Amino acid sequence: MKISLVLLSLAFPLGQMLGAAEPAPYLDPAQPLDSRVADLISRLTLEQKAALLNHKGTTVTVGDRPIRADQWNQCLNGVQWNQPTTLFPTCIAMAATWNTDLVQNEIANTLSDEARAIYNSWHLDPKAPGEHKGLIYRAPVINIERNPYWGRNHEAFGEDPFLTGRMAIAYVKGLQGDDPRYLKLAATLKHYAVNNVETDRQKLNANVSERMLREYCLPHWRDAVVEGKACSLMASYNAINGTPDNINHWLLTDLLKDEWKHEGFVVSDLGGVQSMVNGHERGKMTYVDAVAKSLMAGCDFSDKEFEQYIPAAVREGKLTEARLNDALTRVLRVRFRLGEFDAFDAVPYSKIPLDVVNSPAHRAIALKAAQQSIVLLQNRDHLLPLDKTKLKRIAVLGPLADQILANNYNGKLPSVVTALQGIKDRASPGTEILYSVGSILGEKKDEGRKTSAEPKLDLAAELVKAADLAKQADVAVVFVGTNATIEQEARDRKSLGLAGNQEELVKAVLAANPRTIVVQMSAGPLTVPSLKQSVPAMLQAWWPGEEGGHAIADVLFGDANPAGRLPHTVYASEAQVPSVEEYDITKGFTYMYVNGAPLYAFGHGLSYTTFKYSHLRVSSNEIPASGTVTVTVDVKNTGKRAGDEVAQLYVHEVKPVVKRPVKELRGFQRVTFQPGEKRTLTFTLPAEKLAYWDETAHAFVVNPGTFDILVGAASDNIRETAQIKVAR
């Protein structure tokens, strides 16, 4: 009898013998994705649908299967968690690397590894310590740095749409992975669109021309959606030309979903629906109307208001069930692709272990990222690099010398290395390190979120002490910049200069020791002409992450050759910057239209070696408006050190029919050269990248005529030129 039962069980699975029901189609991985999504939606009540469109909604039970709604997190330059995770340099520093391979395959890949590892740990053990996090991540921020005063410049990739677009694609691909079936994470692009002012952001209206939208405000979004395949976008608080983004049908549906063919979903910013009621449309719109208008415009996912008011919006005829099901389809399609409804082991990313989080390998990538982000702004008389073997005393001074700065969207800080500690670690044995804070900034970041008042100092006494230490030292390094009290979410900068008495500190130290190096640690540009005029050597080191101190020391001592490049213009004066309410960048914003010479140009950055450009050639001197030209140039390291060069390709229309940029970035490559090494670099330039937006035709148009091809080391350091013609 036992043998018969065994044989029978081999022929017929136990479930079939007992008459067990087949799994629901939505749980069958062999079914097409859209069929699975449609099957699940067919099993939901109206209230359950509403709950699943609340990003922190009530858990829904279908049959005996619970479906959580809380599935999102943040990971801008470190996975947000209540345990330590790897802290990378901020995104403006990532942009300063001009290295998309680093951003995609190392930084973003590390972020997604750590996010998946956290998810895997609690999925396998619901009682695992630490917050339980989902797989939809609200990053990257790709808003454009039109406004140098913007408090969130550290979260974004700079002022240029082309550079931002390439960085966005790299970051998104690194987060989402390359598996043909499963997403590693789902990336959410923030904040769509024309969002670069924090003041009154929940009721701000940006008046932008059609041309400025298409040429400047939107190209990088299209790149990240069409080429990067980002899974979702976050609608920003502001309005565009009188219509709040959360209820902007043209922005969320006509452009994004119809023209760009985005198949993912749109999520409101936190409180986005509430801002319709209490911000833009104060006293004019009910919550039911705000929810209905948001969904009908194309916003698919939101806060508690969606769960609370969707049923009423449907019953009152203000929201169609077809649109509701479309929104749910878009959200669930992403969740299915994340593997949420398949066997855990079926997803290739399920095997990433928790011990990768802030592992030595990940810390090494954080160090590499920080090293590559540092920009050598100036280096008169070759003060840098320092020969550590000849230094007996180093004065390390300034309010940011012993701080690590973080933003709102990273995890609990791991073991971090400040500049002071980094210099101590990298200096020759026996070198005396003299330290003084010199000045204060008011408040400092605490664990990336809270602020705490710094102890009150006698600033006059601190200046005297700092100058005295500088006088005793062989070299002085002064760390100045900004922190979260100066630029941060919900806080725009009041000035482009240095806060407090930092400029006075530099002057006092320089007077005491002419061998003074300044290290700027800021997010947005610092307009301080006196530093450029008087300081022999200066670095821009941003907010450089957990290994920032070691990276700075490596550059100071020549163990790393700096090759970072500025991703924004450093204006010569605040008078050079148009009003932040001016959205027409042709009035003087960015390197493309700046009025007069900047303090430091977009793309600027020096090296400890030298490079020669030669033999620029184009594949054709004349191309059709639908054609492509190949640009090649020879670059040689003419110095004695290995180093990276960032070759930049710009274009300029000679006789435009409308005001066009003096230069416009259309290609870049970061390449490592050994001493004496020569390489031929190749750029591909489609004619469509020469187009402007014609407001009469409502389309991009390539104007027949002559275009300059400009290749060099910065926007103001062009080494080789050529011309091509676009045929009529």
Give structural notes.
This protein has 728 residues and is α/β, with parallel strands linked by helices. The chain has three domains: 70-356, Glycoside hydrolase, family 3, N-terminal domain (TIM Barrel), CATH 3.20.20; 369-582, Rossmann fold (3-Layer(aba) Sandwich); 611-726, Immunoglobulin-like (Sandwich). It is 30% helix and 20% strand. The protein has 21 helices and 28 strands. It has a six-stranded mixed β-sheet with strand order 11-18-17-16-12-13, sandwiched between helices. Strands 3-4-5-7-10 form a five-stranded parallel β-sheet. The protein has a five-stranded mixed β-sheet with strand order 20-28-27-22-23, with no helix packed on it. Strand 17, helix 19 (529-534) and strand 18 form a beta-alpha-beta unit. Helix 4 runs antiparallel to helix 13 and helix 6 (100-124) runs antiparallel to helix 15 (360-373). The longest helix is centred in the first third of the chain and has 25 residues, at 100-124. Mean pLDDT is 94; it is low at 1-19 and 443-453.
